[in-house]
Amino acid sequence: MTIPWRDVFPAMTTQFHRDESLDLEATARHVETMIASGASGLVMLGSLGENAALSPDEKRRVVAATIEAAAGRVPVIATVVETSTAAAKEYARDMERLGADGLMLLPAMIYRADPRETLLHYRDVARATQLPIICYNNPLAYQVDITPTMFAELATVSNLVAIKESSGDVRRITDLRNAVGDRYVLFAGVDDLVLESVVLGVDGWIAGIGLAFPRENQRLWDLAVAGEIDAARRLYRWFTPLAHLDTHVKFVQYIKLAVQEAGLGAEWVRAPRRVLVKDERKRILEIIHAGLEHRPKLPPAPRRRR
After folding, report:
1. What is the number of other CB atoms lying within 10 angstroms of the CB of residue 18?
2. 136 catalytically annotated
3. Who's near 164: CB < 8 A, 6+ residues apart?
4. Does 91 qualify as catalytic in the annotation?
5. What is the pLDDT of residue 304?
6. Which run of H or E residues covers position 187?
7. What is the DSSP letter of 265?
8. Strand pairing partners for 105?
9. Which of these is catalytic: 142, 164, 184, 256?
10. What digits encode the pLDDT tens for the residues 21-32?
11. What contacts 256, CB < 8 A, 6 or more positions away?
């Protein structure tokens, strides 16, 4: 499948039963909901998908089930989260054999690679597959920063095609454009910076809290890229308290709880994560319920999109 490298690619959760076993049927139902909302692609088994908590076989089962559920309607992007370059290469090859349309590649986990090692990791994994790759840059979470200068060095690797920019610093978008021009597709990766990111010129959004509010998420994006900033800003003000849930260390629990409260899935997570309890649960539910209670009437869809 030719991937439309723009617009909303939700970062999907992996749904579990209460006993922490995979719930592939629930995952497939949520896939259907996101496709119906207008998603242009699906990113599976990223940080929000609890990749590191799954066994190798479970990861492959989730991706295979998603490919079956998507049935060629939108591309399926499988995330590569491994502790070694060798394991990442093997996983990338397996995803290509399974029929994934692309990959999202993270730095190797646990060890904090220096810039030279990081560049070698990305080059080596890219050479192991023909699939197009989104490079995920999240130095806040993974302690490895792929700088604009480093992306300029990687520009000769043809199947490194996109960047999920999650540094938390919107200035990076302009720095990347100045360093590499339009060489890479740029995806916003932080929910509560998305409107700012659109203004600065991103091409797409790998979204989180939109899993619980898919129609509003899609409309916010459509308004923003169409240049209807006043309408987008009004919707964004309602959306932002929810979007802040994407930036906490417990964002998986927060977003899964929102998905549950919206009637689109369950909150169950894989240990060592645990569902929220006591005051923290009450506080997050207040934010989610306020969002649901004051869910806005959506402004009309824009007539044109860039």
Report:
1. 10
2. yes
3. 104, 134, 135, 136, 137, 138, 187, 189, 206
4. no
5. 59
6. strand 185-188
7. S
8. 80, 135
9. 164
10. 999 999 999 999
11. 13, 265, 266, 267, 268, 269
pLDDT tier at 126, thresholds 50, 70, 90: very high
Question: Confidence band (pLDDT; 50, 70, 90) for 88?
Answer: very high
For 108-159, strand residue ranges (E) read 133-137
Residue 295 · residue 268 · CB < 8 Å: no
Catalytic residue among 136, 142, 184, 236: 136
Q: Tokens representing 263?
A: 């009637």
Question: What's the predicted TM-score (pTM) here?
Answer: 0.96
- Give the H/E segment covering residue 171: helix 171-180
H/E segment holding residue 289:
helix 278-293
Given the candidates 3.90.228.20, 3.30.390.10, 3.20.20.70, 3.40.1010.20, the CATH classification of the domain at 7-293 is: 3.20.20.70
Q: pLDDT tens, 156-204? A: 999 999 999 999 999 999 999 999 999 999 999 999 999 999 999 999 9
